[in-house]
Amino acid sequence: MQATVRALVDLSPVLSELGARFAAAGFSAHLVGGSVRDALLAAGSPGSGAVGDLDVTTDARPEQTLELLRGWASSTWNTGIAFGTVGAEVRGERLEITTFRADRYDRESRNPEVAWGTSLVDDLARRDFTVNAMAVSLGPDRTVTDPFGGLGDLLARRLRTPGAAVDSFADDPLRMLRAVRFVAQLGLTPDDDVVTAMTEMSGQLARITPERVQHELSRTLLNPAPRAALELFVGTGLSDVVLPELSALRMEIDEHHQHKDVYAHSLTVLDQAIELEVADPGLPSPDLVLRLAALLHDIGKPATRRHEARGGVSFHHHEVVGAKLVRRRLTELRYSKDVVEAVSRLTFLHLRFHGYGRGEWTDSAVRRYVTDGGDLLPRLHKLVRSDCTTRNRRRAATLSATYDALEDRIKVLSEAEDLNRIRPDLDGNRIMELLGIGPGPEVGQAWRFLKDLRIERGPLEPDEAEVALLVWWAGRS
């Protein structure tokens, strides 16, 4: 395995040249962090670890690093220079070169008091996990430094911190969310002391900005199999702090009011949505919007749960409540407006299919389904299909066949009409001319009436649409 990391350096002339330049100036340079880890993963599981940007640590100070890069790197940037990091691009390869650090944390924010270090081992000791605390020298000897057993942990698929987990997480609580991500990304299992520290210190996540929380949550969800990571996220109480609606899905089920475990159901829906997403070359993968919708589509259920007669349980209008909760929570987590609206819309629409019984879909119902789905329709198809988690094979087959029939209806009707561009049969100018009105809200009301009419009856001849509009207008007056 160590030979693999040495080979990575040897295969990159840029790294070899970088090491030589620093050595000639009397400095050391070492490849560290994810670059080393991913090279080892790629060796153990071919195709599993693609090495991207290269992270280097050095005893040279930032200004000295910039001087050594002058005339060799095609470009440099110093946006992280306050933290000792200089960025560079050399022949298409991107490097981040950071001075040894010996930071101290006030443990009230996650901003360290930056201090330069003089020891490679001390620099590695301040890193988040042992699998990220390995280094390989860029000097001619290519010495591998692994003071905390990161290689053994990687082979054992174990997640540990270089020091005490409570100290590591107190320095930077974001590391707890990184632990969650590494479970999904690297297939690691956290040690008991890591899980215990995460559980006891979950409230410390309140120190982290919503943007950073969102970034880690998204990266977790975009992995091929995030379920185990999400179970750690919820089980340790981290979700209670940053995504409490997910934790709330673990509703108690008593012996008199049995219903499906909504939390386990949501994780299964996510698993199935990922399978459909990956199998469809027509959609981007990984798809953050679909995955968020699959995970959160039922978050309105706890607030709408009602115990009915004979032990039944209902969740009336949970899709309406859920859409509002999704919009509020994702906005607080600083997701983009487009993502917030898309996930909220999918949550609102995910039950629409079940409102049509066993498939008695009229043409108008099909048009409305397509119109309301809009450009989210391919995702809506996958979400609805994934939402079937019944163990009853006959019922599952029936639901699948019914949805197949709906998609067939959409295809047939789309060939006869352009369902993706349903618009009123009259434009705004003609509406104003017919009704004798100027621009204003009444034109919008008339436009929406004509669009609903178009959905209900299909394409109309202009004279039919004009008569219908005038009748509506007269009745409205």
What is the gist of this entry?
The chain has 24 helices and 13 strands.
Overall structural domain count? 4
* Helical residues, percent: 40-55%
Total number of strands = 13
Mean pLDDT: 87
Give the class from helix and strand content and strand pairing: alpha+beta
Continuous helix count: 24
Q: Major sheet: order of its strands?
A: 3-4-5-2-1-8-9
What can be said about the biggest beta sheet?
A: 7 strands, mixed
Overall spatial form: elongated
| End-to-end CA span | 82 Å
Structure overview:
- There is one protein chain.
- With 477 residues, this protein is of the alpha+beta class.
- The chain folds into four domains: 2-156, Beta Polymerase, domain 2; 157-242, Orthogonal Bundle (Hydrophobic Seed Protein), CATH 1.10.110; 253-419, no CATH class; 424-476.
- 54% of the residues lie in helices and 9% in strands.
- The chain has 24 helices and 13 strands.
- It has helices at residues 2-11, 13-24, 34-44, 62-69, 120-125, 150-155, 165-171, 174-186, 192-200, 210-221, 227-235, 238-242, 244-247, 262-279, 288-296, 301-304, 318-332, 337-349, 363-373, 377-386, 393-416, 428-435, 441-457, 462-476, and strands at 29-32, 54-58, 75-77, 85-90, 93-99, 104-105, 112-113, 135-137, 144-145, 158-159, 189-190, 306-307, 313-314.
- The protein has a seven-stranded mixed β-sheet with strand order 3-4-5-2-1-8-9.
- Helix 8 (174-186) packs parallel to helix 10 (210-221), helix 15 (288-296) packs across helix 20 (377-386) and helix 17 (318-332) packs antiparallel against helix 18.
- The radius of gyration is 29 Å and the shape is elongated.
- The termini are far apart.
- The model is unreliable at 46-51 and 254-259 (pLDDT under 50).
